[in-house]
Amino acid sequence: MSVEDKLEKLGITLPEAPKPLGSYVPCVQAGNLLFLSGTLPLKDGKLIKTGQVSGQVSEKIGESVSIEEAQECARQCVINALSVLKAQVGNLDKIKRCVKLNGYVASAHDFTEQPKVLNAASDLLFEIFGEAGRHARAAVGVSALPLNSPIEIDFIFEIKP
Known about the structure:
Elements: H1 3-9, E1 27-30, E2 33-39, E3 42-43, E4 46-47, E5 52-53, E6 56-57, H2 67-89, E7 95-106, H3 114-129, E8 136-142, E9 151-159
Parallel strand pairs: 7-8
Antiparallel strand pairs: 1-2, 2-9, 3-4, 5-6, 7-9
Helix pairs in contact: 2-3
């Protein structure tokens, strides 16, 4: 089954690849590796989760964003990353494997379940690519992210020669 067929079976439609929000490119190829810039959980150009704490905007997991909402954001990051990959290589069946992802989770000071949040991204990659979706990973809690996003993920993929 092709990657596109798996996405359709999962009810996932890839959006147009998100445009860079700064002075960088979304993807750089070095040999057979594709390095994706940090991907935010944007849908239709907007973050899929926003919230407020004490009248101030806060997107911290463990405050205004639940683990389940953060997991939804992690899945959206994967979907956006796949859009970038498709724009880069034209056909997602050219992807050999996901090598690594680094997840940055805007966390309340006492929140320690960053791996649980990123499991949603890891699990989706496995659903789409099977064993080739298994990867090395870092799950890092941070105080703030661009646009006040609750999560940002960067990826490394290997493509078939």
